[in-house]
Write a structure and sequence with these properties.
Pfam family, one: Esterase
Keywords: Signal
Distance between the termini: 33 Å
Structural class: alpha/beta
Order of helices and strands: EEEEEEEHEEEEEHEHHEHEHEHEH
Organism: Lichenicoccus roseus
Protein name: Esterase family protein
CATH superfamily: Alpha/Beta hydrolase fold, catalytic domain
Number of helices: 8
Number of strands: 17
Strand order of the largest sheet: 1-6-11-13-12-14-15-16-17-5-4
InterPro entries: AB_hydrolase_fold (IPR029058), Esterase-like (IPR000801), Mycobacterial_A85_antigen (IPR050583)
CATH architecture: 3-Layer(aba) Sandwich
């Protein structure tokens, strides 16, 4: 049975075209990720500022390959090749290097397909994200302003981006509604980098939901894929929304997106935080965690691939100058003054009870599944020799502090896997979803 799509108000550009150059193919004139130790980095003194840990790195690969035996990583259970952790297990696991596609991610005859309703949102209609943030990238090259940026004198964490300014965004929102009976107060999962122009493979995800709901491994749930605001990283609308360590993105979803979802898809979404999940990849992955961290009254369940638990927040805020790095580790540099962008109001981060955030806050009711690949991102911008742009190290440290605080989490280190690795996602997604939703019951709620 083919999936039925219903399109509502889907006119003009589907996602971000007004401000993003992501659709343009890279050519020889465009710079690419650095993927190496930045020039002048501190790789020798762990007690000095901005130390970059190179232990266990094979620098001959692109990106460098990490050895999970790095002594700075928490201990993990290594599984047999092709195996994934069970849906009842907690803690740290190593999988790979072979990543077979799970049958539950593929279409099967006889499994009813949910419908998908789509609509667009624009910055002109927003209260929270109006105007948007636009970064001018030279020659139309993706992230050109990032790859050519400099940092503040004596502070390799302080990227200086001068080409960002107010602008407009348009994005798509896709709403999956499962086949058959949908509860009046439906559980749901909301994910970033959605939409036709997003990084996430919505077809694969929605098919997985079809299968798992049909097998009664997941409750009948709504899934909401929200397109990114445009571009990527520091100085972009996508970076402004996803990499900020505050509750603003969750508040935008709650007050501006979910009412449109209910109106357009004719569903009633639950207000029970145990029936609400967030999901994302890369920066939208850390945004998924941030949504639950700052608003646990709205979200208890989180799933992320290659989450950007690093120093990507921009502009810098003096409360949390290390951005998401400060979920798990101290800021390694000097005091940092806030930055401002002309014509845009930037909401300040809030440090809560102290930093690192996870270790210094009362344990929150968050259930977190996350993954990183052994060839995940490593200092993609050469100027940022700040000790806070190793995706694997950041996620290993996140696992360490979650374990120390007795959080319910499952962390997967995937061998032979790149950043947001598609084979790894196709192998692990069904079990990850089951793990995230374990224990959910709508009875009596």
């Amino acid at each position: 049975m083919k999936r039925a799509f219903a399109y509502a108000a889907l006119g003009g550009a589907l996602c971000c075209a007004a401000i993003s150059s992501e659709g343009r193919a890279a050519d020889a004139a465009c710079a690419t990720d650095n993927a190496a130790v930045p020039p002048g980095a501190n790789t020798s003194s762990a007690s000095a500022p901005f130390y970059i840990d190179t232990r266990g790195l094979d620098l001959k690969t692109q990106a460098p390959t990490r050895d999970p035996a790095n002594p700075d990583y928490p201990r993990a259970t290594e599984l047999a090749d092709r195996a994934v952790p069970s849906t009842g297990a907690r803690g740290n696991f190593i999988i790979g290097p072979t990543h077979p596609v799970s049958p539950d991610t593929m279409h099967h005859d006889g499994v009813p397909a949910g419908r998908v309703v789509s609509f667009t949102m624009t910055s002109n209609d927003s209260v929270i994200y109006r105007p948007g943030m636009v970064r001018d990238d030279a020659n139309g090259c993706r992230n050109a302003a990032i790859f050519s940026a400099h940092t503040a004198p004596g502070d390799p964490s302080g990227m200086i981006v001068t080409s960002s300014h107010p602008g407009q965004w348009t994005r798509a929102v896709d709403v999956y509604v499962p086949a058959g009976h949908v509860p009046r107060n439906a559980p749901f999962i909301v994910f970033g980098d959605g939409g036709p122009a997003g990084f996430f493979n919505e077809h694969q995800f929605f098919t997985t939901l079809d299968n798992l709901i049909h097998q009664h491994k997941l409750p009948p749930m709504v899934a909401i894929g929200i397109g990114a605001g445009g571009q990527d990283a520091q100085g972009s609308e996508r970076g402004r929304e996803y990499d900020a360590v505050n509750g603003l993105y969750a508040e935008w979803v709650e007050h501006e997106v979910l009412p449109r979802v209910e109106q357009t898809a004719h569903v009633k979404l639950t207000h029970d935080p145990d029936g609400r999940a967030t999901m994302g990849i890369s920066s939208s992955g850390v945004a998924a965690f941030t949504m639950a961290w700052f608003h646990p009254e709205w979200y208890h369940r989180v799933l992320a691939y290659s989450p950007t638990m690093v120093n990507q927040q921009w502009p810098h805020d003096s409360a949390l100058p290390g951005g998401a790095w400060e979920y798990h580790d101290d800021w390694p540099g000097p005091a940092h003054a806030p930055q401002a962008v002309d014509g845009l109001h930037i909401t300040a981060a809030t440090g809560g009870t102290g930093v690192p955030l996870i270790a210094n806050a009362p344990r929150k009711p968050i259930r977190y599944w996350f993954e990183t690949g052994d060839r995940d991102l490593f200092y993609p911008a050469a100027a940022l020799a700040d000790g806070m742009h190793d995706w694997v190290l950041a996620n290993e440290h996140t696992a360490r502090v979650l374990a120390a605080a007795d959080y319910r989490y499952q962390f997967v280190f995937a061998r032979n896997a790149a950043h947001v690795d598609k084979p790894t996602l196709a192998q692990t997604l069904p079990e990850a979803l089951e793990w995230v939703w374990a224990g959910y019951s709508s009875t009596g709620r």
